[in-house]
Design goal:
345 residues, alpha+beta, Rossmann fold, D-amino Acid Aminotransferase, Chain A, domain 1, 3 domains, 6-stranded antiparallel beta sheet, 5-stranded antiparallel beta sheet, 17 strands, 32% helix
Length: 345
């Protein structure tokens, strides 16, 4: 029987909420499942000391090496055990591989060219002059951490004559040039930031919104759409992330509300685009690193001209926050694991 391993930086599956769902779905799909951390691996014996879910509880067991590994832990925290992880990668198929941060993904797609028309112009902020130069062609811009997530650290900037209007989370500031320079240097000293033109993707009642296109590989190694849903920001915010007070909705009612009779056309466009960009990202990853991709969360905006703009692409999008799709996400992943395991044998 195929044995699927969930590799995580945490030692106990009780502290990883999704571990239970994976264990249950794996059993339903006719496979064994084990949860383990890097330090539980014994390369001499080719065994791991991990946890299996049996009779309603997690039980510590010693097992053979899994046939495939779903590497679910934090990449940053797993780096502490990078030697072990790299050694496992040489002998066991892994499901997930990093595609890089916002800037790296932008550079890859720009170099490839096929989707360059959908890219939001992006520059790394090295000094205040990079922002000033950007403002000469784009009077409204967004500044964000290159490694940011969940909308954290996003700044809206607009130049008004000789002053600078900034919106940071729920706070508004108006700076003269000297204070603006001081503020910018203080933030870019802490981490890397990028600057982009502001894309006016707003609902009829003037709320910022975007779409999450969640795509996965299935048991036939084919890209499928798990979910497409809008994320709508709270009033007055430029951030749509649900963790910052935003909310979501079902796709079709939202499209009918915002686009009227054109909703079917927009829906089909989103579906086609999500699968095309997923295949392109995997093509780039295979070409550069000989690595396949299992799952992507693609965040896009649609401007007043109904043009799609790619905001960012995440290789670990997590489950959709609503719609009871958690088991769909898990089932797709387990079936993809089975595909990889069978390919190895």
């Amino acid at each position: 029987m195929i044995l699927i391993g969930m590799l995580h930086h945490r030692k106990n599956p009780k502290s990883v909420r999704k571990a239970y769902a994976y264990a249950v779905v794996a059993k339903g799909e006719g496979t064994d499942f084990i949860f383990f951390s890097p330090k539980s691996v014994n390369f001499d014996k080719k065994t791991i000391s991990g946890f299996q879910y049996k009779n309603g509880q997690w039980v510590n067991v010693e097992s053979r090496f899994p046939d495939v590994i779903y590497n679910a832990g934090s990449p940053l925290k797993l780096k502490k055990s990078q030697i072990i992880v790299n050694k496992l990668k040489q002998i066991i198929p892994f499901t997930s591989f990093s595609i890089g941060d916002k800037l790296r993904v932008y550079e890859k797609l720009k170099l490839d060219g096929e989707f360059s028309q959908y890219l939001v112009q992006t520059e790394v902020i090295k000094s205040i002059y990079d922002i000033e130069k950007f403002l000469t062609t784009s009077p409204k811009v967004v500044i964000k951490p290159s490694n940011g997530h969940r909308g954290q650290g996003v700044i809206y900037l607009e130049k008004l004559c000789d002053k600078y209007y900034l919106q940071v989370e729920k706070q508004n500031y108006i700076f003269k040039h000297k204070d603006f320079v001081k503020y910018i240097y203080a933030i870019i000293k802490e981490q890397n930031y990028i600057v982009q033109p502001y894309i006016n993707s707003r609902t009829k009642d003037n709320r910022a919104y975007d779409f999450r296109l969640h795509v996965q590989k299935n048991g036939n190694n084919e890209w499928i759409i798990t979910a497409i849903y809008p994320r709508i920001g709270p009033s007055g915010s430029i951030v749509t992330n649900i963790n910052n007070g935003g909310y979501t909705n079902y796709l079709t009612p939202f499209l009918k509300q915002e686009f009227g009779d054109k909703f079917i056309e927009i829906k089909q466009h989103l579906e086609t685009f999500s699968l095309k960009i997923a295949r392109k990202m995997e093509e780039i990853q295979l070409k550069n690193y000989k690595e396949e991709i299992d799952e992507l969360g693609i965040d896009i905006g649609i401007d007043e001209m109904r043009k799609i703009w790619i905001y960012e692409i995440n290789w670990r999008p997590g489950c959709p926050p609503a719609f009871y799709l958690e088991l769909d996400v898990v089932k797709n992943m387990i079936n993809y694991c089975i595909y990889l395991a069978n390919g190895k044998n």
